[in-house]
Amino acid sequence: MILVLGSINADLFFAVDRLPVRGETVLAPSVTTRPGGKGANQAAAAARAGAATAFFGCVGDDGVAGGMLAALAETGCDVSGVQRVPGETGTAMVVVERGGENLIVVASGANRQVTANLLPADRLGPATTLVCQMEIPAEQTVRALRRARAEGARTVLNLAPVGAIPSTALADVDVLIVNRIEAEALVSGAGDPLDLARTLAQRHDLTCVVTLGGEGVLAVEPGGTAWSVGVLPVRAVDTVGAGDAFVGVLAASLDARTALPDALRRASVAAGLACTVEGAMPSLPDRSAIEARLNDLAPARRLD
């Protein structure tokens, strides 16, 4: 069972020929509203990959909340643990250029009212995988990880967007997922991605996964075993949902007791497929789509 504590947003998408630079105005022909938020996206990705998944978070009492919840429920995710609170549902402005690169600004809204207490005690245990990110108050993420670890659940933390989190909180994390910038922030210095992953894995006794965009992904287990996985060859139109697809499918695969190398490969395929469709949640592939493309990505390579 996957439990996700995190954010849910209304994503406002602007398609442009190129991203603006500082101080520049770039015109877009229209704006499209789609469901999003890192927490909701990762929950949707896990559910579409076949995992029993429940999402816990907050939406506002505004007119967009219902549509966002309905879209998440349509992926097969249980949304009964979502609370409506006074105020606005979280909103993200997503600007996507023709080549698929993007910039994002998020107004947290109701996500600032998410607490670890939303997680029911009777659903935390050894059969549970808890997935957290950093789009809700950091102290609540820390509390949730501590509660889950105390109950014997597997804990997965996607440290995105990178923010202040006590290093002691990583003692409650089983799987840490970061990009290179986030990894460098944790170790307070630049370095080779594999060295960064080894440092974090050994320092905090966890599995550290470092995503490298078009260069693939690296992972180091607590004992030091390292793996490398490439990227699925696709024509990218929008990279917005790729990271969340990776996290959700990795969590779902590990929850199904898939070995780490194979779980990384499935997650990488999902991330690649997510780049071929516009939007975050609408781009998330289901299990059959992932399995249909597994043979197009080489198995994980062990790094000695």
Number of strands: 14
The class by helix and strand makeup works out as alpha/beta
Biggest pleated-sheet summary: 10 strands, mixed
Strand content: 25-35%
What would the average pLDDT be, to the nearest integer?
93
Q: What do we call the CATH homologous superfamily?
A: Ribokinase
Structural notes for this entry:
- Strand 8, helix 3 and strand 9 form a beta-alpha-beta unit.
- This protein has one domain: UDP-N-acetylmuramoyl-L-alanine:D-glutamate ligase (3-Layer(aba) Sandwich).
- It is built from 8 helices and 14 strands.
- By secondary structure, the protein is of the alpha/beta class.
Outline of the structure:
With 304 residues, this protein is α/β, with parallel strands linked by helices. The chain has helices spanning 38-48, 65-74, 138-150, 180-187, 193-204, 242-255, 260-274, 287-293, and strands spanning 2-5, 9-16, 31-36, 53-59, 78-84, 90-97, 102-107, 129-132, 154-158, 175-179, 207-211, 217-220, 226-229, 301-303.
